Amino acid sequence: MPTVTLLPALAHVGELGALLPATLPAALSAQEVVPATTVVPGPFLLAPLLILLPLLGAAVLLLVGRRSDRWGAWFGVLMSAASFVVALVVFLSMLSLPPDERVVDHRLFDWIAAGGLDVGVGLRLDPLSVTFVLLVTFVGTLIHVYAVAYMEHDKDRRRFFAYLNLFVAAMLVLVLADSYLVLFVGWEGVGLASYLLIGFWNHERENAVAAKKAFIMNRVGDLGLIVALMLMFAGFGAVDFATVFADAPEAGTALLTAIGLALLVAACGKSAQFPLQAWLGDAMAGPTPVSALIHAATMVTAGVYLVVRSAPIYEGAPTAQLVVVVVGAVTLLFGAIIGCAKDDIKKALAASTMSQIGYMILAAGLGPIGYAFAIFHLVTHGFFKAGMFLGAGSVMHGMNDGVDMRRFGALSRYMKVTWITFGLGWLAILGIPPFSGFWSKDKIIEAAFVPIDGQEWRAWVFGGVALLGAGITAFYMSRLFFMTFHGHKRWNDGSGSPTGPLSTDGPVQHPHESPLLMTAPMVVLAVGSVALGGLLAFGNGFVDWLSPVTGHVEHADPVLPVWALVTLTLVLVLLGVLLAWRQFAVSRVPIVPPRGSVLTRAARKDLYQDQVNEAVFMRPGQYLTRSLVYGDRQMVDGGWMGLAGLVGATGEKLRGMQNGFVRSYAATMLAGLIVIVAVVLAVTTGTGS
């Protein structure tokens, strides 16, 4: 696992130092980023296998059909695991290189050569892409193993594993692409795989609707990426990273701002950030392994990758950077507030994911001071959040697929492994030392308190939001943990139940621990939740590892001392935990949720995000469409049909004159002759005078 593999990395990428430095990185110039080389070291030639192996797995499982029902699941696991082995080889090879040789562009073949556009298909291998590759393949393999048991009784599980392999392949295309156009191919691929997996149980209407909602809202975000591609081609004449990043410092601020905002729209769609976040909660309709892989650890973090990868563009667009920070700050509070009111365990975790990605987006928008911390939190979050989603699936497995936390309680007595592994993830997301979240999320909070360009108001505003989010996170995640594993039993064990709001009437439940194939991945992810953050932070190792991409930065002090920020954060976290303990562990939790305050009722409805989307976009769109249809029928069709009617009516009148009588024709000819003679005489008379 990466926690072991990364140990030798510390000797290469970092120097021993204090685990909690008193100062933070400040700013860098774009020139400090290591330029890419086209000289491909031997082991890097294996990189295409990273994509080809899971793609082969998907193709085999889909083409062979039901003949692979017996072995298809394990074949999918094998392809994902093989891709992880290749990722380890590439990673270790990169560690052996000096930092200034760790950015490699590996061109595979030419794709488009038309006019001034020359696009090839290639891979960019650098610390950023390799970090994502390790995360996707390692966590992906664990989730594949978990799914073998979770989907054991599903008659279509072969197709499920084909879609999982397809997703892994598409995600690897996205993070390994050496141009925005190839990245777009992977971007669309993960969107397709997400649609297929969310709607996997499409015989239920709710799942099919959720899949369509996610697909459509992601298409809105994709429009931003398409616009960015067009602007890049118009402004730089190319869409590959090397050319765009090299020319960005010389480009105009207006162009870079437009591109940066367009890329942000794409990031908001894929990473469920405000205002394109409404699809994520509904996406929990898919099988739980999908939620763990796609909607916790990998796909929803693609927006963070896009912003960090596009750092040279944002460095020249301070307005776009500020908008990125604002979007992250709004979303982290938005998701946290929603999480406080959700009773569905998976939807509560989805709200948490939205909030935590908001932290990452905020950090990425801070510029060089936050790039490495955004990716740091992305990696640790991938472990503890995937572990908690798998834990939620284990609870559902033991509770007959129930998801309502108000009908759980006291499960720690029956599901020890799930309770412990979930609890370790809970401590990690709270940011309790020495768990992983402490090293990553707290660094984002500290970075948010650093003044940018001497503007202290930004430090107080965004730092305050990040600090407040930590306290709310502690409350709603503790609420989830206590309602599920502690407090009083709120499910029917067949021994009779009380009446009223504490009634446990319902199906008889027999909670039990999940099988080894499900608990083993949870244990591995729990170990990462405990140890990975400290290992990566040791000696500033992870920041140094990413420095060829994010640059080497100087140090700056936040507006408050680091020790004060750490203390204040822990105090808020402790208050959130104690409040949740008193309300959901000590007190009896009613089965029927109380009416609650106005904010609580709004949070239960996702702060009316669907209603706002309907009012702002859907209904005006419907009215516009109906108006266009009316105009088309009345003006366009009406005009042509009216002209046709006029011609037809004229023909009807003229046809009445053709009665077949010779005398009528003779009279008509005589009348015509008289008219002609009269005209001739009139003309002759007028000329003579």
UniProtKB/TrEMBL annotation:
TM spans (from-to): 45-64, 71-95, 128-148, 160-177, 223-245, 251-269, 290-308, 320-341, 348-369, 417-439, 459-482, 516-539, 559-581, 665-684
- InterPro entries per record: NADHpl_OxRdtase_5_subgr, ND/Mrp_TM, NU5C-like, Proton_antipo_N
Give GO MF terms, alphabetically.
NADH dehydrogenase (ubiquinone) activity; NADH dehydrogenase activity
Q: Where is the NADH:quinone oxidoreductase/Mrp antiporter transmembrane domain?
A: 177-449
- Name listed for the protein in its UniProt record: NADH-quinone oxidoreductase subunit L
For the keyword Magnesium, the answer is: no
Q: Where is the NADH-Ubiquinone oxidoreductase (complex I) chain 5 N-terminal domain?
A: 111-161
Which keywords does this Swiss-Prot/TrEMBL entry list? Membrane, Transmembrane, Transmembrane helix
GO biological process: what's one of them?
ATP synthesis coupled electron transport
Q: How does it sit in the membrane?
A: Multi-pass membrane protein
Q: What is its main location?
A: membrane
Taxonomically, which superkingdom?
Answer: Bacteria
Instruction: Print the organism lineage.
Output: Bacteria, Bacillati, Actinomycetota, Actinomycetes, Micrococcales
Location of the protein in the cell = Endomembrane system; Membrane
The entry's cellular-component GO terms read: endomembrane system; membrane
